[in-house]
Design a protein that fits this description.
The complex is a heterodimer of chains A (170) and B (431).
Chain A lengths: L6 E10 L5 H4 L23 H6 L5 E4 L11 H8 L4 E4 L4 H9 L4 E3 L3 H4 L5 E5 L4 E4 L4 E4 L5 H9 L2 H10 L1
Parallel strand pairs in A: 1-2, 2-3, 3-4
Antiparallel strand pairs in A: 1-5, 5-6, 6-7
Chain B lengths: L4 H10 L9 E5 L2 E4 L3 H11 L10 E4 L9 H17 L3 E3 L7 H7 L8 E4 L13 E4 L2 H10 L1 E5 L3 E7 L8 H12 L8 E5 L1 H4 L3 H11 L6 E3 L4 H8 L19 E6 H4 L4 E3 L7 E3 L10 E4 L1 H4 L2 H11 L9 E4 L4 H9 L2 H7 L2 E3 L20 E4 L15 E4 L2 H10 L5 H4 L11
Parallel strand pairs in B: 2-3, 2-5, 3-4, 5-6, 8-9, 8-11, 9-10, 14-15, 14-17, 15-16, 17-18
Antiparallel strand pairs in B: 1-7, 12-13
Classes of the chains: A alpha/beta (170), B alpha/beta (431).
The complex binds iron/sulfur cluster.
The site of iron/sulfur cluster (SF4) has 13 residues of chain B, from helix 11.
């Protein structure tokens, strides 16, 4: 995995509601798929197959609160990442899902009002280290939390595996 | 200043003098558990490139989600994990037919003790807070990091204390209590928090019932959830491990973010049901009217223990499962299976028309052994009712206590146990 950038630009693919659980993101029936790249095929399969079909690399998924609640399945974060999602932006995240995203090098950004402050298709600019989101289409700023230093380190390394590899090689 | 139980355990595990909520600490891990997703962990571990795991005696792997293997793909992942376990010298491995659901097998075999830091690649790892362990779920890649170095960073959680006094009404159990609490606090009501349960009603509970509370606390976002380390627990543990046991407890002057007081008898009048498609969508049974059910599931890491099978056997004894309904019963472990067989519970359930599936997760995660068709409704003693969790995205899952599952199986619709078994008796049976 190559290192990730802290400055991202892309369009909002979809805006989702509260409590989007990991069963919605990635159905349990596919948990025996342990090749991370292959998980992308089943992203949002039961409830939002149209999102999966339409995603283009670098696009953002925006949601309201408690995104990623429920099962600890890492495939939920992997499916988003390998489907090409550039970052997930939500009002809040469930804790295991949040850690999974960062560990896989997928930026997860906390922004309480994001779901209200943008529309599907809007172009956003993210500065993860500074905690800034700019809605370019609507020409407005969206309040967001700064990524904590530990997360910044993992995202720039390209995820926990790459980070630990480097650490043990050193 | 006093410390909560979560703070106390993290202080010790991180070697610091004190900790405060929101601080990040690096703690040593005492026990690292995985199930089938050990294959994901294994792959991440191999990518990191270390030759050996940090301590093979502290890793436990238990197959439960797909047992016996339901597909060639699963069989292949099982095989890969078996080979890894042998190559790394991981002795605590529970293969198909040797264990059951991870959260049952771990304590049953004496792996969990008060004061431990325990991580598992399963969200319901919170269950082990019923044994006084700081126990929480993590992802597979993070676990590969633990396998590599034996430590993990934690943000110190603020603690929510829940005091439960009073007496449960007939047919009301730990499941109703925790569904009631989740209904009040919401799916994110304890997000990132530690939860401490205490009070007379909790201290009277069996260990099995306390596990229900710690298990379902995850569904309100809890990072860890404790019930008291008292003599009931220590006696239970002494029967399962020769290791010395410690009586850990929060300080009397610990600082809590919030204290919630509940009177079991005054606040909970009737069975609580989590309606589709959210665990916090909780209603009292009588508010639901006629809800026909096509399947009733008794099992899971929440409610597949001996006391759960006992109450179901009592309700189904001499009765038949309704023609419209299938009853699937899954003992949570091989040990429970044998005990239930010896005590005649399984015979009673089979005679009533129930089907016994092998110890494991069964249909809980929507893979096998009771998948729902579009338009079907299921009453289940499990812990999640998300869209498509047990099959079709157009099926409905109602979460309920084992007593309500059994009564509903007889009635063919959501039903109060008192409508099936006339005389009133307490719901918490000894197991
Ligand atoms: S029984 Fe269900 S909730 Fe429990 S570990 Fe298995 S799949 Fe997860």
């Amino acid at each position: 995995m190559s290192g990730g950038s802290l400055k991202l630009r892309g369009a909002v693919r979809a805006i989702l509601g509260d409590n989007i659980d990991t069963d919605i993101i990635y159905p349990g029936r596919y948990l025996n798929i342990t090749d991370r790249e292959l998980t992308a095929e089943h992203l949002f399969e039961l409830s939002y197959p149209e999102i999966r079909a339409a995603i283009r690399p670098g696009e953002f998924i925006v949601a309201r609160r408690n995104f990623g609640c429920g099962s600890s399945r890492e495939q939920a974060a992997a499916a988003l990442k390998f489907a090409g999602v550039g970052a997930v932006i939500a009002g809040s995240f469930a804790r295991i899902f949040y850690r999974n995203c960062i560990n896989l090098g997928l930026p997860a950004v906390i922004a309480p009002d994001a779901a209200l402050a943008c529309a599907a298709g809007d172009e956003l600019e993210l500065d993860l280290a500074a905690g800034e989101i700019r809605n370019v289409t609507q020409d407005r700023a969206i309040a967001s939390a700064r990524l904590d230093p530990r997360a910044v380190e993992l995202i720039t390394a390209g995820g926990l595996i790459a980070y630990l590899k480097r650490k043990h090689a050193a | 200043m006093g410390m909560t139980l979560a703070e106390k355990i993290l202080v010790r595990a991180s070697g610091r003098e004190s900790v405060a909520p929101d601080e990040v600490v690096v703690a040593r891990v005492d026990l690292a558990m995985s199930h089938e997703n050990a294959d994901l962990v294994r792959k991440s571990f191999l990518e990191i490139g270390r030759p050996h795991v940090w301590d093979p005696s502290k890793i436990v792997i238990i197959f439960d989600h797909r047992v016996p293997a339901e597909s060639e793909r699963t069989a292949t992942t099982h095989q890969a994990v078996r080979e890894f376990v042998a190559a790394q010298g991981i002795r605590h491995f529970y293969d198909v037919g040797r264990g059951g659901i991870c959260h049952q097998v771990l304590p049953e075999n004496g792996h969990v003790r008060p004061g431990m830091v325990l991580v598992g690649t399963d969200s319901h790892t919170t269950t082990h807070g019923a044994f006084g362990a700081f126990a929480t779920g993590i992802g597979a890649t993070e676990m590969a990091g633990v396998w590599t170095g034996g430590t993990l960073w934690f943000k110190v959680p603020a603690t929510l204390r829940i005091l439960v006094e009073g007496e449960f009404r007939p047919w009301i159990s730990a499941k109703d209590l925790i569904l009631y609490i989740i209904g009040r606090l919401g799916a994110a009501g304890a997000d990132y928090r530690a939860v401490e349960f205490d009070g007379a009603a909790i201290r009277r509970m069996t260990v099995a019932s306390r596990m229900v509370l710690a298990n379902l606390s995850m569904e309100m976002g809890a990072k860890v959830a404790f019930t008291p380390v008292d003599n009931t627990l220590l006696d239970w543990l002494r029967a399962r491990t020769p290791e010395p046991l410690e009586q850990v407890a929060p300080d009397p002057d610990a600082r809590y973010e919030r204290v919630l007081r509940i009177d079991a008898g005054e606040d909970i009048w009737e069975p609580q049901i989590a309606c589709p498609h959210a665990v916090d969508h909780v209603r009292p049974l009588s508010a639901l009217g006629d809800v026909p059910v096509h399947q009733a599931v008794l099992g899971s890491c929440t409610n597949g223990r001996l006391e759960d099978l006992a109450i179901a056997a009592r309700i189904l004894s001499g009765r038949k499962v309704h023609p419209r309904t299938r009853l699937v019963v899954i003992p949570a472990s091989q040990q429970i299976y044998r005990d239930a067989m010896r005590l005649g519970y399984l015979d009673t359930l089979v005679a009533a028309g129930g089907m016994i599936a092998p110890p494991g997760c069964g249909p809980c995660v929507g893979v096998h052994q009771g998948i729902l068709a579009a338009g079907e409704a299921c009453v289940s003693s499990t812990n999640r009712n998300f869209i498509g969790r047990m099959g079709s995205k157009d099926s409905q899952v109602y979460l309920a206590s084992p007593a309500v599952v059994a009564a509903s199986a007889v009635a063919g619709k959501l039903e109060h146990p008192a409508a099936i078994v006339k005389e009133s008796e307490p719901c918490l049976v000894e197991a």
